[in-house]
Amino acid sequence: MTAPRLNAALLPSLKPGIRRPGYDRAALGIGIVHLGLGAFHRAHQAVYTEERLEAGETGWGISGLSLRSPAVRDALAPQDGLYTVLTRAPGGDEARIIGSVVEALTVPEQPELALRRLAAPRTRIISLTVTEKAYCRDANGALDESHSDIRADLAGGGFPRSVPGLLAAALRARADSGAGGVTLMTCDNLPDNGGTLARVLGRFVALRDPGLAGWMAEHVSFPATMVDRIVPATTEAEREAIAALGYTDAWPVVAEPFSQWVVEDRFVNGRPRWEAAGALMVGDVHAYELMKLRCLNGAHSSLAYLGAVAGIPTVSEAMAEPLLAAFLQKLWTQDVIPTLPPVPGIDLPGYTAQLEDRFRNPAIRHRLLQIAMDGSQKLPQRLLRPAAERLAQGAVPAAIALAVAAWMRFLLGEDETGGTHAIDDPMGTKLAEVARGAGRDADALSAALFALPEVFDPSLAADAGFRAAVRDALATLLRDGVRPALRAALA
Ligand code: CS2
């Protein structure tokens, strides 16, 4: 017999050990509309909000919008929006059912309803986890006006295709109807994420609907946030782990026990008391953001490219390779921590030691190829800016150079064990073409990639010391392989 499907009616009959909403979901109002209803949001912000709903702040239910695929909606709608967060630690799993997502919509299929939700007076926060590429930024973090979706949305005519286009339409509707102020809270891993969103949206509005700018200045805020929880893509194995608990969940999310959220406290129209759920509400997120992007995400991307080229499947398996673990220590202590400002209340060596433990968590299967995606969008803030800052301090960042070389080697599309991988990146076609054109020649390959201003800031690309370090590391990778290159970097 198949286990019954999770839904509101099933909640009372679940096993006693499974935590579930203790509040009346039918009484919730939608106060937050979230764009990008992926696994990360459901294991992070939706859980903090769940705590506040439990505490009686019933106006902050979440309407979750998927920007492209109907898959999440199709999984959650029959479940009344309910889903499981499966927290996995070496000591065992813990399942909790989350009720804060009161509905799931798909923008392309339900555009009018999505826009109504975004423009409703009771929607006071619009939050986003749409990934780096959806901000349509150019290399300087400004709106990429040549982006095909931006061009289509600036020309107008159809329903918006881009995130800036959709937000501008929502704000226009709010201004026209007097719906009141709204906070646009990005939770993506971008440098200065709040400022970046303000900049790309501000520019879009200036071009498309300049009359809206005055209303926005009074009614919209863009707090920056630092978000952190390791949430790998859900696999069949997790669905089966849930079925063993006695019910079926079409899309559970799996996460590590650790969770952190630092939020700039700038909300124009109220917010849940997330601080009572463990979030840190602060005046300035910058130092936390740099720490997280450079230490965690920078190490993740380094492991992804070095590990994937070596044919290693997951983060925890990469950490079991002593050379890679030692490499991360070097990356953090020599190249990254010297670029960080002091972070209030945090001891950086303690922070990186904790990261190492988190990466080693054997209960989490975080695929390196998932992290390797969208490298062109991730490398600049994770590895290249710290490299430039380290160079300005007079040191050549050798560990970062090897990680960047591993990204270049990765673009050849094959690993050292004979496996092949696609280059999943908005610049993927171009990157693969450049790599194919240069082939296994370290000089040609590094030179061709350094010439891409979308990835490499021209002043970094012109730094002779950095170029040589990357080229030499790439030559070793191509000639001898990942492990010898790591040994050379650690010598
Ligand atoms: C990862 C992040 O896929 C990636 O690029 O580095 O998703 C990472 O797991 C999260 O930022 C952790 O908070």
Calculate the terminal CA-CA distance, rounded to whole Å: 59 Å
Name every ligand kind in the structure. Answer: D-mannonic acid
The share of residues in extended strands comes to: 5-15%
Give the overall form.
globular
**Largest sheet, described in full?**
6 strands, parallel
Count up the domains: 2
Radius of gyration: 23 Å
State the secondary-structure class: alpha/beta
CATH class of the largest domain, please? Alpha Beta
Describe this structure in words.
By secondary structure, the chain is of the alpha/beta class. The chain folds into two domains: 8-282, Rossmann fold, CATH 3.40.50; 286-490, N-(1-d-carboxylethyl)-l-norvaline Dehydrogenase, domain 2, CATH 1.10.1040. The protein contains 21 helices and twelve strands. The strands form three sheets. A six-stranded parallel sheet has the order 5-2-1-6-7-8, sandwiched between helices. Strand 3 and strand 4 (92-98) form a beta hairpin. Helix 6 packs across helix 7. The longest helix is centred in the middle third of the chain and has 24 residues, at 286-309. The radius of gyration is 23 Å and the shape is globular. The mean pLDDT is 97. D-mannonic acid (CS2) is lined by residues 189, 228-230, 296-297, 300, 370-371, 378. The site of D-mannonic acid (CS2) has 10 residues, from helix 10 and helix 14.
